[in-house]
Amino acid sequence: MLDDTDRRILRHYQHAPTLGASDLAERAGVTSATCARRLERMQQEGVIRANRAVIDWRALGYEVEVSLRITLDKTQPRAFDEFIDAARDVPEVIEIQTFLGRVDLRLSVIARDMAHYQQLYRSAILTLPHIADIEALMHVARIKSDEVLPL
Amino acid sequence: MIELDTLDRLILREMVRDATQSASAIGRALGLSQPATWRRLQRLRDMGVIKGQRLELDHEKLGFGVSVFLGVKLATKGRVSLEDFERAVSAIPEVQTVEHILGLYDYRLRVVARDISDFERVLRRRIMTLPGVGDVEANVLLSEERRPGPIG
């Protein structure tokens, strides 16, 4: 299990994921060897899943981001699986989430501009299987996005 | 806007998979020299295509069993400043993301909690007491998948 030192390392690492092992060790107040050993153990145990680069889609010309909240036709027993499989084939879908609540699923879709979004919506989204209802929310701004856990 | 060629896309995909890889490791995997890989990586960073890194942790192993998305509608638009709401909501440690949206709701929040009763505590004590909060809709996250996006 994790002890206070592990949590301290993770706390610092979460806030500065680009740090190398020695800088991270210094911030967390442990030796480089301890830090490296604990990081390795937490990776092996699956506590740390990955350290991923974050892409700025706007820099690549994708100016529009839309959240599509989707309700599925649940009389179809394989509605979730078939919908998700088909959504995976749409490259502009960057996130697929499933929920317990008022909506079943949410897709994050990016597009170059509104015209591109319209075209995607008609040709790739509305054609996905088993949709009962769909609601679009347009992203205006990200106020907080660090996704840090309160460890 | 920056145009990417196939090698840039492959390098980006590698970095999204594991950003701790060295330029030489990525280069080896793609049959590209270390200096050439490094130059391309540097360009992707300089142009802001790679805007940072994110540590992906196993929430459950760290004791956070529940993630909930809240749609929040402000009750008294115009009377409460958006800045005040945004500042207050961003300061809550359990709130991981805050997005300003147009549509049914004004804001979408991602909240983590240890379990449902912990979530109830956060909702009652922290969220419902925010300035200007009106309707709140909660959807409990069951599964989540991040896709590579149009760089494949």
Automatic annotation (TrEMBL), chain A:
The keyword Lipoprotein does not apply. Gene3D superfamilies: 3.30.70.920, Winged helix-like DNA-binding domain superfamily/Winged helix DNA-binding domain. The keyword Transcription applies. PROSITE patterns: HTH_ASNC_2. One of its GO terms (cellular component) is cytosol. Pfam families: AsnC_trans_reg (PF01037), HTH_24 (PF13412). Residues 2-63 form the HTH asnC-type domain. One of its GO terms (biological process) is regulation of DNA-templated transcription. Keywords: DNA-binding, Transcription, Transcription regulation. One of its GO terms (molecular function) is sequence-specific DNA binding. PANTHER family: LEUCINE-RESPONSIVE REGULATORY PROTEIN, TRANSCRIPTIONAL REGULATOR AZLB. This is Leucine-responsive regulatory protein.
TrEMBL record, chain B:
Keywords: DNA-binding, Transcription, Transcription regulation. PANTHER family: LEUCINE-RESPONSIVE REGULATORY PROTEIN, TRANSCRIPTIONAL REGULATOR AZLB. GO terms for biological process: response to amino acid. The keyword Isomerase does not apply. Residues 4-65 form the HTH asnC-type domain. SUPFAM superfamilies: Dimeric alpha+beta barrel, Winged helix' DNA-binding domain. It comes from the Bacteria. The gene is lrp. This is Leucine-responsive regulatory protein. GO terms for molecular function: sequence-specific DNA binding. GO terms for cellular component: cytosol. Pfam families: AsnC_trans_reg, HTH_24.
